[in-house]
Each structure stands twice: as structure tokens, then as C-alpha cells.
Amino acid sequence: MATGFDYKVTATDGRARTGVITTPRGTIRTPAFMPVGTAGTVKAMLPESVGATGADILLGNTYHLMLRPTAERIAALGGLHRFMNWQKPILTDSGGFQVMSLAGLRKLTEDGVTFKSHIDGSSHHLSPERSMEIQALLGSDIVMCFDECPALPATEEEVARATRLSMRWARRSRDAFGDRPGHALFGIMQGGVTPDLRAESAEALTGIGFDGYAVGGLAVGEGQAAMLGVLDYAPGLLPADQPRYLMGVGKPDDIVGAVERGIDMMDCVLPSRSGRTGQGWTPRGQVNLRNARHQNDPRPLDEGCTCPCCANYSRAYLHHVLRAQEIIASMLLTWHNLHYYQTLMQGLRDAITTGGLASFVAAFHARRAGGDIEPL
User: Fold this and answer.
1) Residues with a known catalytic role
2) Rounded Cα gap, residues 16 and 20, in angstroms
């Protein structure tokens, strides 16, 4: 494991575990949810406000940052932490997922991917070596190896081809990453929903050796049941003494299901994206504050929540500023949603520590099944 990077499991409950990842920039309590700071910002939030919700780590996006303002410019300005005023750990993705989504704008070869920028149409090339170089320039604490992530559904032949290419790229990523004390490199398991390919990918990755391992290639169109089916066995194929990261997940019930199955880290744009579209997440599920039922409601979005949105503003006010298209609507709802997600993670960590995860999960699902509070 990388010098200055450590992972320790402190308690287990079934397959779920809680623990601590130690980095030179701070500790990360697991299970951990990472807010997504795509372009050097969690949309509608100040970095210190993100920290106040309980987040220990953010995710930055290699693809977006390499295009604008460029990794070289960020490095010249002191690195991503200084650039965006976030001093806790940062994990950067490899850029592979975004590049692969540009189906009509890219050319894939053994060497890497050549693609056209969605910003100005300029041509760029991303390879395992270039991805490692960009992430080093950004200065992220956890670096992801470069991979190909095919969208599902796909044929088994296509998934097998992408999985094996990703494993060759993983070796090149490991070689290009080199020895960087204080910085960790994670491998990414692929294989779609095919157990044999997942096992093949896990064997290849552990043979190379990484500081942590991600379960990739999920939440890409396969549906929750198929995703959880993979998670029933995939985490167990990876080393038990290193972090397991499920990429791009997800909704609160996705997160709970993943944690039950042994996942330690997750990320998703949903809390901030929902906040910008008038959706608030609560223990009772998702609430659409645009609905007219809220226009005269003096109650907070969630009476049990201690975030600034719920402590100071009513459903009626949130409905009003959404309808008026005021920026504060995105600010308040994003803060609330991130607070809710971090509260959920703390609840999961506490439940695992005390051996009460089954009761916590049952109560979680029961509250959601009851639906939102009755209108006045």
C-alpha cells in the first residue's frame, strides 16, 4: 500500500464494514459518500459548506478539468486543492467514463482514446499514461486507473473485449503512476453482469496490485436488481483489507444495498443535480418542491433535519424560490441533500459499529414506504 495511505476496518456486521482510510490530507470515514465536484466545484455550494455537511472527501473529474482550465494551469496555480479551496482528500476519476460516453466523437485503439472536446470541438488524446500525468498535475490523493466502461446492455463479447482492454490499461496505469508517496492508485474491476468476467478482472487487478479497488461498469443502464446481483459477489472477489469503491452510485436505497454488500466508498451527482431541479431527499423519500401542495406549507422540508435549509426555511419558501427561478433554491436544496446523504452515511457507520445494521435497514425502508408527510 502507498506510503502515507492506510485502510483499517474497525467493525463488521454481516458483509458490511466500517473503518477509516488515512491519507496525508486527512481521514475518510467509511462507508463514505463522495460529493462530485466535476469542474472544481460542487455546484451551488461553497467548499466549506460541503465540508460542514460531513463530507471527508470530494471527487474531481479528469475529463472536464483537462479541457478547462487544463491540468497544467491548475498545477501552475498550486494544484486542485488550493485552486478550489478544499484541503481534505480528493479522488479523481480517470476520464474514461466521460470519454466513452462520447460515442460519436471518439476513436478507440489499443493505445487510448482520441476524442473531440464537447466545449470547442478540439481534438485530444487520453491514454493510461496521459491520464496518470493529468491526475498527478491535479495533485489528487486517490487516482483512478484508466479504463473503458461500456454502457449496458451490451453483448457479452463486447463486455469481454472492454474488460480485457481495461486490464491491459490497468497495468500501464500502474507502471505510469510509479512511486508517489502520499498518493494512492485504485484499480477498476469491469465485467458487466457476467460473473466469470468479474472474476477474471478481479484476478488481473489483484495480480497487478493496487492501493484500493473499484467496482466499475455498474449504474450504466442495467437497473438496480442487476446491480445488486453483481454486488452480491463482486466485492468478495477483491482484497478484504483494502477499500472497495462503487463508482457512480447512487440513490439512497442503492447506497444502503451496496453497503450491506461490503462497499466502502461511493459517489454520485444526484444530491446536487436533484437540488438544482427542485428535488429534496428525506428519510421519507424524494420530495418535489415544485408541486403546488407545498405553496402554503410553513413546515420545513424535513422536521428531523438540522441543515440550514430545514432550520430556517419553509416548504412554501422553497416552492416560491423554485418557481421564481432564484439561485438560492439550488443552494438550499443542494445543501440539504448533501446533508441528508452524509447523515445517512453516519447512520450506516453507527449501525455497523453497534451490530444493528439489519434494524437500521428495516427502519430505512419502512420510512420510505410511508411516503412524504401529509399535506396541510
Assistant:
1) 93, 267
2) 14
